[in-house]
Each structure stands twice: as C-alpha cells, then as structure tokens.
Amino acid sequence: MVTGTRRIGTTSLDASAPVDVLSAETLQRTGATDLSRALISLSPSFSAPSTPNGGFASSIPAGASLRGLSSDQVLVLINGKRRHVGANFTRQALAGGRGAAAVDLSLIPVSAIERVEILRDGAAAQYGSDAIAGVINVVLRAQDSGGALTVRWGGLAHDDRGGEQHTINGWKGLALPNEGFLTLAFDAGEKDKANNTRPDPSLPVGHPFRNWAFGSPAVKDQANLVANAELPLSDQTALYAFGTWGHRRSIGENFYESNTASSVLARSVYFQQRFPNGRVPINIYELDDAALNAGVRHGDTRAGQWDFAVNLGQNTVKSTDANAINPSYGANSPSTIYTGSRENTQANATLDYSRELRVPGFSAPVTFAAGLAYRWERYVLDAGDPIAYTRGPFYNPSSVLGVGVPGLYSGITDQDARQLSRRVGGGYVSAEGNVLDGLNVGLALRSERYSDFGNTTHGKLSLRYDFTPQLALRSTASNGYRAPSIVQLGYSAFSVQTATINGQPVDVQQRTLLPGSPIANLIGGVALKPEKSRNVSLGLVWRPSAEASATLDVYRIGIENRIALSENLTTATLPALAPILAPFGINSAAFFTNVLDTRTRGAELTGKYRVALSGSRLDLSAGWAWNDTRITRARDVTTSTGAVIPAAQIVGRNTRGLIEEITPKDKLVLGADWEAGAWTVHGGARRYGKWTNRATNALDDKTYGAQWVVDTEVAYRFNGGLRGLTLAAGAINLFDSYPDENPTVVASTGQAATGSGAITKYSFNSPEGGLGTQLYVRVSYSF
Question: Which of 108, 186, 189 has its CA nearest to residue 147?
C-alpha cells in the first residue's frame, strides 16, 4: 500500500487510517465495464449515479463520491500523481454531482489497473486541495511480459429496453533495457441507449412519440489507451512515464416537445413544418482526454529517496444539438447546430523526498518526507455557432406564429466565451514512526499559495497503538480545504426566452453568472471562498488469525463555506431582484455560493475471511457504511439595494436534499469468491438503505425504501491445448431488483404528473438505476 503513508512496506491493516486495496482480479469479477461501476459494487463508502438520464447527462464524468460527500471533494491520483478533472459538470439534481467538476474514472481501462487504493480519510495536508472525503489512487499495471485480450458481450435481460453493449480490452507487457518495462493497455466499445419508462399519458395510443425514451445515452466510438513505462538507468535511478488517451461520442435524448404546446417555439410555423408530431431534442457530446506524466526517481538507503515529476492533462467536451431548429432563421435553419466546447487543462510539477532517520529514544526509524509542488490550471469556453443563440431575420415576437429562439439553446454563447487560469505553489513536510513499541505517530503539514485565493496552511496528526499483534487502535485528526475548481470559477451560461410582460412580448435572459462577477455581486453572488474542513476519526483493527481481519472506523467531517450551485432566482419569486436585474434584461439568475456549512458523521465496518477447503478456497468479505450529513448553518445574502435574500431561497429544499438525504443512509456490501481448480465462482450482494428525494414543495417529497442487488459470475480456465483461454458468464442484478417507483400523481396538487415526471418510472438518483438484470459473456485469452 502506498496511499496515505510514505513508509515502505505498509499494508492496509498496518495503517493509521482506513485504506481499501482492490486488486485487478477483484475489479474484473464484478463484470463492470468501467472503474466507477466496479467500485460501486465493491466499496460500501463509494456512491455515484449509475445510470444518468437525458441528453445533458451524457457529458457528465462518471465521478467518485465517498462518505456521502460531493465528487469534487475526492482527490484522484494515477500512480500517486494528481489527475485532472473533467471540463463539464451537471446542473441537474444528481447525488454527489450537481455543480461538481469531477475526475472521469471511466477513462481508465480496468485492463490497465494493477490495484486501486481508497483512502477513507481527510488528506489535504498530505496531498493538497480536494482530499476532504478521501483519496482514490489508481495504480497501473507494470509488467515486462505477458498479456491478455478480452471480448465482452452484454445487454439487458429485457430486450425491449435496449442497452446492448460490446467491448474489447487487453494489455501487453514489453521488456525495456536494464530490466525496465512498457505496459500497454486499452479498451474500446459501444453501448446502445437504455430506457425503462412509462408511455406518455398526454399522447394518444398510436402517436409516434407516445413511448419517447428518457434513459441512459448511447455511447459510440469509445476508446481508451494507457501506457506505463520505467527505464532503470542504474541500480538506484530510473526514468518513468505513463500516459492516457480517451475518446467517446455520446448521444442523449431529452424531453419530448409537443407541437401543440403553448410555448412560442412550438407555435412557430417552421417548427410545425419540420416537426409535425413534435420532437425529441438530442445532445451529442464529443469527449477527448489526454494526459502525460514523466519523471525520474532515485533511491539511496543512506541519502534517501527523491522523485521529480511533471505532468500535463487536458479534458475537452464539444457539444452539438441534433433534431434542432432555430425558427427565427426560417425553413433553412440547420437541424444540427454546434453549441460550443469546454476545455480544462492542468499541469503539475512535483519534487518529493523521503528518508528513514534514526532518532534517539525511538523504537524504530522515523520516515521523514518533504516536497514542493507547482500546479497551473486553465479553463476555456469557446462559443458555438451563432445560429444557436442569435435571432434570425424571421424573428417577430409579436407574431401569432412566434418565430423566436425560446427553448433552443443549451451551449456556449459569445457572452460566455472566455479563458481563465490560475497558479498554485506550495510545499509539505511529514514524519511518521514508532515513538514507543506499538505506538506509531504521524505528522503532516502543507502550505500552499493560490494566485486567486492567497495562502493556506493545514496539518494532520495520526496515531496508532498496537495493544497486541492482533488488536490495534487508530485515530486521525486533520484540517483541510478545497479551493473552488477552475471549472466552477469560469463557467457561465446564457439563454434568451420571449416572455409576455404586461401583455407585451419581451426578450428576457436566464443566466448562470460567474461567481463574484459585477452582476452576481449586485444580487449577493460574491466571490467564492475555499471550503474548509475538519476531520476526526477513530478506528479499531482486529486480526484474530492470518486468514481473518475486521476493522471499524467512526468519523466526523465538518465543512465551512461549502460550495453549492444556487437555485434559479427569478424576479417573479423575488421581486427585490427586479430593479437590479431589469437594466440587464435578466429575469432569472443562478450562481455558485458559499452560504452553507455542513457536518457529516459516519461509521464503516469491514471484514475478510479466507477459508481453506479440500481442493478449493473460499474468500469471504463484507463491508458496511453509514453516514449522515446535516446543514449546520445557512447564511442569508444581501443585494446591492440592501434587500436580504434568505438562505432558504438561495439554496432551496431540493438542493439541500441533495446534500442531506439523496444518498442512502447506509450501504452493505457482501462478497464471496470460490476457486476450485479451473473453476471460479463470484457472488456479490449490495443492500442500499432508505433515501429521500426532496421537492420544492414538502408534500411532494418521496422516500425510497431499501433495495437488495445480487451479482454473480462463473468462469472456467482451460488447460492443455486451450491453456490461457477463460470463458465467463455473469449477471449484474441477477434477481431483477428495482427501486421504488416514482409517484404518478403530484401530492401537492392531486393532479397527474406530466412531462418527464409522468414517464420516468424510477428516480434519476436510484443508486442502481431502474434497468433491471444485465447479462454478459466474457472470453479472455492470457499469454
């Protein structure tokens, strides 16, 4: 284990903080095609929406959420080096994701991974910003020979729901001089759209769009490549490098738009002509991601070890609207409109040094470490085709036909296009060792300077006492921080709608404002501050035998100035905003804000037991996690006119529910792996506790009950002439389990649900989605 400590030879059970170590074989046996999906199956502390829905969701990174916190409060490392985050985030009400720019774990092929280490503890003092909830370190495969190739076919057990998926992945190890290595890995494939919705009750039987789909998007042209290499120059010095490249095109369908609706767009004669039965707008996202890391390390038992590394990573998302129209350009409006790109770039340079020192009176050497780090970040928004956001020659707001832009735009305008950058420099020191027999003490201190946030200094203390070789107590205390991501600092959005005000058609703007911008300042959207955290944990490690272990950890995480995306503040619901926003033509605005403080408390229990049977082996595992997050303080904001906007309106019930109740309160994960000769059988089960989806009106809140999900896989390894060949068949959600269904009647009004509320059978935030059983077959050849 290398995460959370700089001591050599530490295992997860020797550590002062909880660390999960998941091997490549363990990841593969889940049957998952990407890392995020595999971690959902294996880690009780890990959560993420497993089947995001709709067009926009297809552009959102498959991020990681630990301990019920946001996905941007988890730091992701590749081979111990900081990974860049995605260029896009969602404004949708997704668990752990609304407003968060996360690392896209789906871009790392499972075939490239040797193991994953999950540090479940605050580690900002050790690794820097973002490590409030913990750290996920993906350790790449490092082989100089051998290889494997795997082809997988899969799909939903219910053929009418789509979701057919074909993937191929593999790796190959090559020898370099001086016992060096080059390991190459890849995956590629595609997936059809998947859907499990109700017929639209507002449309008659036989209508071509009565069964319009609102499910997970189709993924085309997906390919990911990874290279990991090391070239020793001597017994003590080696050059190393690793890089990743990824590409995919996703096609997501949005809400059906009727041509009989009362909107100005639907009443346009050009909309009627092009879409006589209405339409389903489509978002197409092209994602390109690349990163390169290079460095040199030197190890000397007397002088210590040092590691100098540089890396550069970039994530770009380009968006296009299909099945589109801008009716103000008439019948010649294109049906495919480019709507802009988002690009996030990050470069790092680090110098790390560590050495074991003998300290008089200490029972063992102390591991001393120090380092320097520099980071440069840039965020670029490029505008799309002007036809996406401008008025054409046929625009006439007073016309009964209403040929205008309303409802069209979802991309980047010329007002949003910008480039933003920042620099971060800092250093750290740490020491860890046995002060007395059985008592291990660790100290870490990190100080950094941001070009946009000034200085910050944070520390961590860890303690571990081994009462006996079988029983140990461990504890940590730290403070940390998370600077707003450069994506949150640089993102803004702009759209125009035609509204009727005092009987007259008027152009009005809806904007997501830059935090701290002049307009945002006027309505209380002041410049963002970094989040500040305080983490405390206490744990117990029990090793009754070489074949069994158990751990129990409890923790508390307090976060001040938590960053959240505000509600859309409208002049209709907040009249005090009208005189401020009227000069800018804006009637609705949102911005990122620090008005909340939160507290998260939780407990995590894990256990493993290996049973030696006659001619076979059985590995049993179990993990249980419980957490509870509460908003402890909410601050009102003041506008430029002195009006006070209550915090409850800045961050409303739905967004507060995403923080406090959208993640199941507890999660149980069980695993059993049986190996007997050429046969391997895997069984896994997960139980998700209750969770609640809050609505704007409390009467419409919905609490979803507990859900069990069971997976299984059976594999056979051939010998003789077919040696190296493995056949496997499995099922994810074997017993076709589903979460509670969404209500079909709106409780607060007593009326039937309409639109997406009428057809979506299951909540977007259901931890396992609502697609039912997924079956797959896998053929692998190792050489």
Answer: 186
Radius of gyration of the chain (CA): 27
Dig out the tokens for 408 from the structure.
């069209």
Q: What is the pLDDT of residue 62?
A: 65
Give CA angle at 62 (196, 671), nearest 5°.
Answer: 80
Longest pairwise C-alpha distance within the chain: 89
Q: In angstroms, what CA-CA distances link 588 with 495, 510, 518, 573?
A: 10, 5, 16, 10
Domains and CATH numbers, the chain: 19-782 (2.40.170.20)
In degrees rounded to 5, what are phi and psi of residue 759? -100, -25
Q: Please, which pLDDT band fits residue 397 given cuts at 50, 70 and 90?
A: low
Helix (H) or strand (E) holding 465: strand 454-466
- Contacting residues for 302 by C-beta, under 8 A, at least 6 apart: none
DSSP-assigned beta bridge partners for residue 724: none
Supply the DSSP string of 248-313, one letter for each residue.
EEEEEE---B-TTSSSTTTT-HHHHHH-BTBB--EEEEEEEEEEEEEEEEEEETTTEEEEEEEEEE
Q: Which residue matches tokens 């290499």?
A: 229
Q: Is the pLDDT of residue 765 over 80?
A: yes
Cα 76 to chain centroid, rounded: 10
Q: From CA 572, how far away is CA 569, in angstroms rounded?
A: 9
Q: How many residues does the chain have?
A: 783
- Per-residue DSSP letter, 643: P
Q: What is the pLDDT of residue 233?
A: 96
Q: What is the pLDDT of residues 191-247, one digit of tens each?
A: 999 888 899 988 899 999 998 888 888 999 999 999 999 999 999 999 999 999 999
Question: What is the spatial distance between Cα 223 and Cα 487, in angstroms, rounded to a whole number?
Answer: 25
Place of tokens 């916190």: 69
Evaluate if residue 634 carries a pLDDT over 70: yes
Which residue carries 């005090």 as its tokens? 576
- Alpha-carbon distance values, 455 to 31, 103, 373 (Å): 45, 25, 14
Judge whether residue 437 has pLDDT over 60.
Answer: yes
C-alpha 43/C-alpha 105 separation (Å) is 15
DSSP 8-class letter at 485:
P
Q: Which tokens belong to 141?
A: 């495969």
pLDDT of residue 402: 41
Per the listing, tokens 């870490």 go with 444
User: d(Cα 685, Cα 677) in Å, to the nearest integer?
Assistant: 24
The tokens 């407990």 sit on which residue? 603
> Taking a C-beta distance cutoff of 8 angstroms, is the pair 699, 745 a contact?
no
Distance CA 369, CA 430 (A): 5
**pLDDT score for 325:** 86
* Higher pLDDT pick, 703 / 329: 703
Highest average pLDDT, of 458-472, 573-587, 758-772, comes from 458-472
Contact yes or no for 664/602 (Cβ under 8 A) = no
Enter the tokens of residue 194: 């998947």
Whether the CB-CB separation of 339 and 325 falls below 8 Å is answered with no
